[in-house]
Queue: 3 jobs
Job 1
Amino acid sequence: MIPNGIYGHYAGPVGVGAPIFFDTAFGSHFTDIDNNTYIDWMCAYGPMILGYGHPAVEKAAADQAARGNTVSLASPVLVELAEQLVDMVDGVDWALFGKNGADSTNLAVMVARAATGRSKVVKIDGGYHGTSGWMQEPDRPGVAAGERDQVISIAWNDAAALKQAIADHDVACFISSPYHHPVLADNEQPADGYWAEVETACRAAGVAIIVDDVRAGFRLDLAGSHAHYGFSPDLVCFGKALGNGHPIAALTGTDSMRQAAMDVFYTGTQFFSAVPMAAAVATLRELLVIGATDVMTDVGRRLSAGLVDLANAHGFDLVVSGSPAMPYYRIADPSLARREAFAQHSRWIKACVQGGAYLLSYHNNFVSVAHTDDDIATTLDIADRAFGSLRT
Amino acid sequence: MIPNGIYGHYAGPVGVGAPIFFDTAFGSHFTDIDNNTYIDWMCAYGPMILGYGHPAVEKAAADQAARGNTVSLASPVLVELAEQLVDMVDGVDWALFGKNGADSTNLAVMVARAATGRSKVVKIDGGYHGTSGWMQEPDRPGVAAGERDQVISIAWNDAAALKQAIADHDVACFISSPYHHPVLADNEQPADGYWAEVETACRAAGVAIIVDDVRAGFRLDLAGSHAHYGFSPDLVCFGKALGNGHPIAALTGTDSMRQAAMDVFYTGTQFFSAVPMAAAVATLRELLVIGATDVMTDVGRRLSAGLVDLANAHGFDLVVSGSPAMPYYRIADPSLARREAFAQHSRWIKACVQGGAYLLSYHNNFVSVAHTDDDIATTLDIADRAFGSLRT
């Protein structure tokens, strides 16, 4: 009934000994339909940030559902959410909402094009901003001739390449995640001075800076990941964690982009559904109250440090990259070819999953504020046995 | 805080004496934040089909919310929904899900391109399939040079133009709504034999037929609008009414498109949210149990017939177009220029809205199964006074 069965990013772990369907999810755990319970270090690939079934979020959602969800008019919660987001995100003056992260990245590029009157988009090699044609690699099935013509792809941390692209083309915008979190590769932080250099180059040429904070948003800094790195983008995209699992995304922007945001045509039937907006207001408030980034950073650091120590004890080298609340793990082994090293790493991940700690081999993992000391301790026990199993 | 304040399609009625924010919505009514209650003939622009806050749908949603919404795994309700949809929609063999109608139209075009190895898309002038760049008019702000290069636009009901386009270009697909429902113009049914001719031309050339049933889906026929008109598309897009207001969209397709659907890269973080899927299963079952299309067709016919009679009694000519459950209204007046005639029509709509019947002047309206005989009678009373007010 469904091509590929489980499709999209959920297809990745299928067939490698991982569970396929959840039955229930609560807090930091989910239980699959075979009644196995897992500590969930994927957090639904980001959305779950406060824990599954968070009482305050679910109450806000249920209260709004009793009043109405998608109605012929907007709900006042639209304004409440815009105010909340503009208040907390550094340097932005307005917000617009959609459903998918890609709604917000697509809108960001449209706004940047409208603001600059230019077409070209500079992105990062391996940077992911959704599955629209222009965002996909040109040779992917279904991507039309010419769909990528306006896109220039450069290496991460290469400010010189950005300057060259700006010199060579009429560039409307530079779109990038705040740090580089591709799949199947160590994640990379910005080099010292990288974002400052990007900012200077883009300002000088009137190129809009779009931060795709869909994945990292609220896990580095509640004021946006650009606040963590100390630079000032024109447009910032949010999604994933914004509604703690309720489907919503947002584009925020500065006053300099406001007229362009008013000029472009952007809408969707489901964009005005009020329940995810109410859930998002409750999520953001709760994140602020508990100082969520510090909590997650601490949990992520302790988990990663514990895993590295265990790896060492077993004679392995576990490389941790990315940000503390979104760790990417890789067992490095210079004695093995790249493919064999990844296979060994995947065997370790599989043993962790089968032991009850849900991690992925090829994608960064996610920490939530619902993860407890017990979750860390249990995960380390599981990981310990998993490292042990690699030697047998 | 929000560019344009109320944006997108919700901005249309703003500033013409219409309410802006809802407070509560139930059944066929909503109440605005100033405590005015309206009979809602827009149905959230389509999603509301069983009535706001429908008990069976909301119970299914709440039960699923208690188990989990967006989790690191899919829910079995994904399979249940695919089975339900494939069972009820004529001629389709599989389903994939997203959030927005545009997720499903974008995916449909990707699948058609992957299946055919061609790039060109034929669409209908004024046909609406979302706000992605390739779907927008080329001169809209933010639409890049070249984004429409692969799109050929032809007039509705012009099978000869379609044949010519196919002869002149490497056409991957023809995308169209099942009947023509543009804004600001009478809606148009397919001419006798039109869809059969389209089918023959497309089959002969290996061009995929995509029906965008996002707006009309389930209001003409529960087996899909193509079943109503008696033709066999390759791909059918659903959205809007699928979840009775819970954000979800679907692409369904035939076996001939299955491999292409497996080959394309399509995903989204929010695509696997289980609550809207549970709501959609409940919505579809309820629609089948009550034979919803017949109910809505009957309500729509009675409403439209009553309005036409009233118009006549007041000396006006109310033109009704579209399908019975999605009527487009226009007061025709050959004595006035087009703009003045529309202004007169808009004054009538405004008087209806201010009287408590929420209609739109420039867009088709929507009927739901929640609309009662009382709703029709009250709306006709309101419309009667509104026609009267036009003469004063």
Note: Residues 292-313 of chain A form the longest helix (22 residues).
Job 2
Amino acid sequence: MTQDLLLKNVRPRGGDAADILIRAGRIEQIAPGIDAPDLPVEDGAGAIAIPGLVEAHTHLDKTVMGMGWYRNAVGTDLRAMIDNERAERTRLSLDPHRQSMRHALALVGAGCTHMRSHVDIDTDHGLTILEGVLSTREKLAGQVEIEIVAFPQSGLLCRPGTLDLLDAALDSGADLVGGLDPAGIDRDPKGHIDAIFELAEKKGRGIDIHLHEPGELGAFSLEMIIERTAALGLQGKVAVSHAFCLGMNDWHRTEALIARLADLDIAILTTGAPSREVPQVTRLQDAGVRMGAGCDGVRDTWSPLNRPDMLDRARIIAMRNNLRSDADLARVMDLVTVGGAAVIGLPGHGLAPGSSADIALVAGETLAEAVVSDAPRPLVIKAGRITARAGHSLTEAP
Amino acid sequence: MTQDLLLKNVRPRGGDAADILIRAGRIEQIAPGIDAPDLPVEDGAGAIAIPGLVEAHTHLDKTVMGMGWYRNAVGTDLRAMIDNERAERTRLSLDPHRQSMRHALALVGAGCTHMRSHVDIDTDHGLTILEGVLSTREKLAGQVEIEIVAFPQSGLLCRPGTLDLLDAALDSGADLVGGLDPAGIDRDPKGHIDAIFELAEKKGRGIDIHLHEPGELGAFSLEMIIERTAALGLQGKVAVSHAFCLGMNDWHRTEALIARLADLDIAILTTGAPSREVPQVTRLQDAGVRMGAGCDGVRDTWSPLNRPDMLDRARIIAMRNNLRSDADLARVMDLVTVGGAAVIGLPGHGLAPGSSADIALVAGETLAEAVVSDAPRPLVIKAGRITARAGHSLTEAP
């Protein structure tokens, strides 16, 4: 299981053919015609090389992959979907370790080298779901890096005891503090936001909060997140997932919010949800906001529509954002690689000497073609180690 | 090339296993354990059987499939995309016959048995594009039925001579009169709508008009379409494609429009465009509006994002319309089969004795799974004749 490799004949970001020399898990050189007789060689056969895909918003603990078809009769009310899932976890014997292994390895097969996963913490299941995902993270160490957000999916203050569990989750291995619709779910925006920011400050952790609230309600919650980020000096440590309110049709209102996000370096994570108003990627990026992207939950009790594949997601984001030109589609490819990496704290992620050798090969003539095509992924490399071939992880899923 | 067939072991619409007996191109019987020793037999291996997919809004004359990657630098302005395409047709030597063959056969491979294609009619290219698509229709007769809309893509009144060409197109084999953004493109809503309705009345043809105009502008154009449909007694003969204005956020306004569409039996065709406001499928259907769906142009100078596959489109429509439950996803499957068929004038399309044997087999446990999975399509049958296996048409594309 070497971490030295000579990757021959690939096209970095769809450009001219070159070889990539990897030593001790890092990229040492990118140039045509590299000779390194001591190293194992892989022939890229002219495929495009991109930095490893970054799944920056998902839920590894939720999928029902491999458990037969889940018949969804719950509809689309957020509270109903939350309560349905919490009950179904037990009824279906949904094993968080097995399921997160399946989900994570599917992502590895599709070119992912890094993931940020929210993991449900609630008073029914305590930390058992987290333990399953932690065990997956440990088993897949060296193949993929998994960052974990302790996520109060069922509500925080509306279910007493949850805040203590979040605290314990951070002591048990979760990395960040999560939150969820301070008004829409907890019905106490001040209480919810105060609680998660206090916890984050106490533990010295970052925050990633789900904000589905639309329009002015979401904008109000977002303002409170902005205010506390400024007050506590948490610049660069806070991310907001979804932030549908930034898609509302009030240019002055959204422009002011976007400027504040850029000032305080609050990151935005998007799934490009086709059925919702969404923050527009190029608008926010041009204003200086760090953005990443994710597939969200896949094949779970919420919906069967999402897939564990960041290139499938890239196409959806391109469609939702009306990005069609080659230049714009290349930006979407950056969003799902270096964009997400910058949000989860990997600013050096990329194809450059000195970077960790986290590389996916994708078939196609151009980056744009790779984005729109569910392009085949012949090879995935994590820190110089081959983790997947022909779309499948080398580690078999349970 | 028999049109008699015994299709064994399939699950009609995902239900219990049955056999389908086909004689002279029509479904004679659907039941378990049919015995017909005189007929050729196909084993469906338990796949789901659905009525042939209906691509009810596409542009067979536009694709660059098989011509290498087209680098799109034109952006998203509608007029710019129109003018770019008209020029690129010549520069790229885009052969309308060859390209429409490629596009149509890809759709056949993916399970289509019927298509409605708009075909560009403009003063630069005259009827040459139409001739290419007519030749495709003739070559593929018996494999797929292609309905053609004479489409003034570059504008009607703003390019004098186009109206005469539409008239000639209808004499040459086009079936319906097309139109396009009466205000947004032609800058003369009354003139445009009068012209196409007069032509349709004179020739005794139906109408299918592209209406991208958003909000109140689109609603105004839609009102004029409604008024003329009523005045000329064209109930059941008019379809509006896209109709983004029906997605605008004014419930009373849209509700009144939808009621008028249902009264006059004006059909709506959707692509579920993720970047636009769109008519909501279940809302319109529940109000009694006939609806069908299409992929729109695929891999063309407008955008590389669309694919020639109605199940890929079904998933996009489900995402755009927030349809997730098994029941709702089954409705989406109906939209892309019998829904589109009802719009293009095939009310008997379906899996029932007496119907034409137009059948696609799709892999999966349930209809919902087939919608969300780009499900493999092992077999496609058009009027009893096998047209595709394993996702590929038996006729090779040029």
Note: Chain B has a mean pLDDT of 97.
Job 3
Amino acid sequence: MSKKAVVLVSGGLDSTTVLAMAISQGYDCYTLSFDYGQRHRSELEAASRVSQLMNVSQHKVVKLDLGTIGGSALTDVSIDIPEHETVGIPVTYVPARNTVFLSIALGWAEVLSADTIFLGVNAVDYSGYPDCRPEYIASFEAMGNLATRAAVEGNRLSIKAPLIDLTKGQIIKEGLALGVDYSDTVSCYQASIQGLACAKCDSCRLRIQGFIEAGIKDPTRYQNNA
Amino acid sequence: MSKKAVVLVSGGLDSTTVLAMAISQGYDCYTLSFDYGQRHRSELEAASRVSQLMNVSQHKVVKLDLGTIGGSALTDVSIDIPEHETVGIPVTYVPARNTVFLSIALGWAEVLSADTIFLGVNAVDYSGYPDCRPEYIASFEAMGNLATRAAVEGNRLSIKAPLIDLTKGQIIKEGLALGVDYSDTVSCYQASIQGLACAKCDSCRLRIQGFIEAGIKDPTRYQNNA
């Protein structure tokens, strides 16, 4: 029987590539997404579509109202999504988001008896997000190994972030080698309800550069042929 | 200006005592509760009542559907609440619950620029819950100090669990010395909608023993004069 893994999926380019990598490594994958009050809700449909296309064992969407605590352009419609590069930690940063997502993944991993959690964080492109750094991931893993019944009983938990040192171009090449169809994925912070990307936000700009870097025709569906 | 703290409150005896302690230490308190699909929903009303009576700056309730991942008698009505002492980690354990709650508190602390989070875990009574141990709390604090923008900018986060080594009787004496009225609190895992306790579940049994140990008349409102 193959080993179980919980894979955090957003329906975007990075997490879809991570899912393809986990599957190629022989893991029995359980995908987890969050309905956390994000503006870009078409990503939830992409997460569900990608999970189905890649034949995961189960896909769960946990509802969680992060908008209650505020503090991010991604959950607060009164803060504009920046359409140009910004200095420092961007306003699209959601306070403690990866910690919250990993914590719920930890709980599901315990219920499933899965000892691995995959996530698609990337230190190169998102250097402004503190919870995308390798030292943060290592620290969460150490905490997770003290937090659960499974850990107390000796089943060591592993948090894998295989994209952490890759550029967007390298991620795309890795995914294409594993057969990922990126036209199924949505990265945009303000995608239309049909999943069409704006081509302007941080996430779109990084993605566009990634396809250029990889030398691959960009299959993303943009608004107004942007 | 006093220092801000986020205080996790469940409306129960322990967290209400912690809130009184945080206030007595001069913190400007922001209380946080979770609507996580728990059966004992009257605790949310108690959390709100206690927050109001103790004049906190703000009380937030974050909705979070932990029932989606399952695995606990507290969120799954198909698992019975045990009415006798059990061996090992009880079925009322909610996978990764404290980790999830602390993670969201971490996010709110960042939004508020609060550098302290208080929670009412207790290693003596709940020795079966892995996420109530001092080494777990220390490890979460270390992780939290790598996770946020505030931490990156040098504001050290502190997680305080002042009840961790106290017995239930000691907690009650501490709270009474600070003027807590325990008739306002609800600890029961299966309290009635009016907040009446069952007197039978783990949480009720520990609380009853606590009042006996403290030598104090138990002000809890029980069902059918239980």
Note: The helical segments of chain A are 13-24, 42-53, 97-112, 134-147, 149-152, 168-177, 202-214.
